[in-house]
Backbone:
């Protein structure tokens, strides 16, 4: 890795909607810079960057890939990020590694869903933004209309710095609007002088002295204009727009020139870190203290674990010891790599502002901060969206069963938007991702890389059981089969336990006669109350009574679901000096609880989810109408920037299991939502009977009915 000073480094992320030509653009830049001897093509499976088998088969990026090239004395580190919203986790990680974001736009299609989202993500990170209008040689391209749409959506800071000469298939080059030639071509797609004026207006806005001179009519020198452009890009008052036609190799050299000349170096757009909890701007000094962040993790079948790092300060050297901030771990870096797509070259060091990779360091995870020993500085945390689409997964064979947990854990390490957990109540392993496509690709990766095959299906809903009334009764367990038998009799009362109680003030003698003690479980709002008097149940058997009740609560009574929100009082019983034991009292308590539960107006509870749904204003009626059909309840709305509205609502989990697919269909892919568990509510009677009938079909039966 040639050592470039910090001011010669450019860290760029390519983002945008799918099929806008990001990877083709990156491949062409690598070719023009002499990295590749031929132009790679994602469509032909020859891209230097799309190296995964799934990417080659589908002809689009699934994960982010890092490469670099030299241009005009600058080292340009380029991260090609996926364009589909299903893989947004890769984009977020990449944004933490860069100062500049290139957002590609498909000229014939205009601004699409992920164009807008990428623009917002970059703005939220405070990064410099370039827009790249690609496929300008396509049919029916309305460049003046697109310029109007861009400025309407993204603001007047957007200004064309190159414009096409010719239209459609007749495009033969681009014109630099920053430094206009004396003879302006007549076939420019938009007015060059207007574009030049817009560039200057945006550029001088970040420099008050220059603005005054400009407004006074003074002619600015080319050097002053270039300097003003660089400052304005950092300040956000200028968002340069470059036009390209990658397949025709038009406008790409000019874009590379623009990146080298105008994109900020790490020294020009310094990053914020936290020092002892307080915000701090860190200086990218190669001689400063080491501060770096893991921006991506990859599990490679040949190289093993690869951790990609952005160095913010100091110099990371091969064979050095590093400290993982927030832990007591000190680890040695044996191998340090420069990354070029799927190729890795060993290097001795990586300085502040640069990117590098380390291999076979299991202690590093995406988002970790590393230092040379201090815990005082941490990099900003990476905020990944919570996955909203879940499927239950099980191994296809016994051989798969032995490997599935480790295989899923590897993928979870690579992909921060993929989660795995086991549902305690349903005993299912559930995988969660951003979409159906996301999980389909996870399944492919399990098969192709990990050699694990799985079966998937909709996960079961974690319903709960409770009672709306109360019942009191007894049960005698008696068994004699030669020798010592079994005998136990318990008298119980089962009743509803209100939510939100204070156990210390609720479980008192005024409410529970002869109260001796109680055991309260806040996780399921359950209380076992000991009201035994006169020693009718010996003390050594009372824990067995509670154990029997809890076992039956876990098994469920009417539908095989966990019981919650109940109080069980033990107030009398009988024992036998020879035949009584813990097992007998456990069985008696379990059976008595079941019988009383069925008498105490049993009912089913369902999980209610809290939703925040962001939709275009034009689709509010469609979305709210659909929510009504899902037993949803509106709780409010608020306007958000960009012509969108956020809807706050609640709905049963059973009604929104596949909501991601439905919302995408209703909003043309422009809608998004978050969902988290809120609370449990009673299931409507007609729905309860369906659930109980299904549970009975699957092997769980009871002798009672829910109310």
Residues:
């Amino acid at each position: 890795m040639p050592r470039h000073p910090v001011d010669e480094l450019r860290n760029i992320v390519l983002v945008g909607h799918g099929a806008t030509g990001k990877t083709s653009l990156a491949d062409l830049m690598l070719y023009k810079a002499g990295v590749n001897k031929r132009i790679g093509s994602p469509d032909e499976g020859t891209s230097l960057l799309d190296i995964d088998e799934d990417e080659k088969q589908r002809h689009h990026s699934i994960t982010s890939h890092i490469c670099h090239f030299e241009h005009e004395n600058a080292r340009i580190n380029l991260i090609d990020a996926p364009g589909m919203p299903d893989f947004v986790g890769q984009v977020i990680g990449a944004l933490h590694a860069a100062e500049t974001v290139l957002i590609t736009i498909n000229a014939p299609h205009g601004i699409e869903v992920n164009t807008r989202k990428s623009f917002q993500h970059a703005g939220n990170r405070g990064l410099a933004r370039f827009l790249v209008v690609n496929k300008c040689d396509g049919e029916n391209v309305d460049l003046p209309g697109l310029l109007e749409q861009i400025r309407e959506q993204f603001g007047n800071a957007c200004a064309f710095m190159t414009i096409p000469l010719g239209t459609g298939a007749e495009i033969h080059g681009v014109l630099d609007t920053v430094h206009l030639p004396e003879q302006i071509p007549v076939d420019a797609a938009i007015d060059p002088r207007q574009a030049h004026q817009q560039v200057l207006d945006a550029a001088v806005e970040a420099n008050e002295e220059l603005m005054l001179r400009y407004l006074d009519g003074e002619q600015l020198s080319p050097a002053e204009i270039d300097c003003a452009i660089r400052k304005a890009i950092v300040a956000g008052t200028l968002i340069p727009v470059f036009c390209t036609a990658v397949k025709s190799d038009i406008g790409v050299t000019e874009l590379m020139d623009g990146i080298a000349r105008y994109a900020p170096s790490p020294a020009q757009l310094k990053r914020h870190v936290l020092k002892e909890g307080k915000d701090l701007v860190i200086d990218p000094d190669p001689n400063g203290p080491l501060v770096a962040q893991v921006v991506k993790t990859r599990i490679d079948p040949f190289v093993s674990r690869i951790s990609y790092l952005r160095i913010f300060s100091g110099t990371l050297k091969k064979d050095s010891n590093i400290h993982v901030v927030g832990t007591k771990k000190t680890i040695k870096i044996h191998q340090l790599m420069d990354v070029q797509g799927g190729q890795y070259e060993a290097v001795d060091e990586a300085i502040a502002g640069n990117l590098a990779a380390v291999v076979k360091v299991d202690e590093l995870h995406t988002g970790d901060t590393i230092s040379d020993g201090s815990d005082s500085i941490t990099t900003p945390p990476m905020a990944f969206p919570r996955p909203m689409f879940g499927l239950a997964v099980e191994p296809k064979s016994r051989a798969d069963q032995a490997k599935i947990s480790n295989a899923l854990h590897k993928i979870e390490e690579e992909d921060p938007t993929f989660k795995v957990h086991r549902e305690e109540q349903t005993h299912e392993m559930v995988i969660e991702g951003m979409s159906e496509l996301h999980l389909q690709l996870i399944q492919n990766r399990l098969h192709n890389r990990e050699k694990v095959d799985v079966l998937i299906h909709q996960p079961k809903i974690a319903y709960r059981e409770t009672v709306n009334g109360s019942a009191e009764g007894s049960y005698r367990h008696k068994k004699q089969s030669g020798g010592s038998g079994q005998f136990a009799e318990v008298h119980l009362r089962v009743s509803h336990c209100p939510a939100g109680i204070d156990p210390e003030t609720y479980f008192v003698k005024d409410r529970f006669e002869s109260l001796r003690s109680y055991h309260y479980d806040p996780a399921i709002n359950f209380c076992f109350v000991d009201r035994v008097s006169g020693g009718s149940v010996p003390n050594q058997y009372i824990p067995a009574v509670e154990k029997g009740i809890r076992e039956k609560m876990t098994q469920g009574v009417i539908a095989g679901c966990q019981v919650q929100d109940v109080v069980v009082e033990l107030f009398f019983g009988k024992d036998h000096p020879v035949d009584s034991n813990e097992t007998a009292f456990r069985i008696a308590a379990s059976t008595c609880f079941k019988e009383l539960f069925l008498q105490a107006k049993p009912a089913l509870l369902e999980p209610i989810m809290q939703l925040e749904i962001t939709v275009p204003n034009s689709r509010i009626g469609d979305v709210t109408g659909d929510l009504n059909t899902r037993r949803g309840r509106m709780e409010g709305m608020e306007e958000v920037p960009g012509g969108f509205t956020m809807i706050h609502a609640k709905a049963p989990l059973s009604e929104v299991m596949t909501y991601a697919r439905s919302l995408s269909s209703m909003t043309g892919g422009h809608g998004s939502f978050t969902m988290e568990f809120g609370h449990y509510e009673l299931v409507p009677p007609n729905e309860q009977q369906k659930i109980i009938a299904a549970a009975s079909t699957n092997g769980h039966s009871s002798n009672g009915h829910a109310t």
In short: The two ends are 72 Å apart (CA to CA). The chain has a mean pLDDT of 92. The first strand starts at residue 9 and ends at 16. Residues 206 and 232 are 5 Å apart (CA to CA).
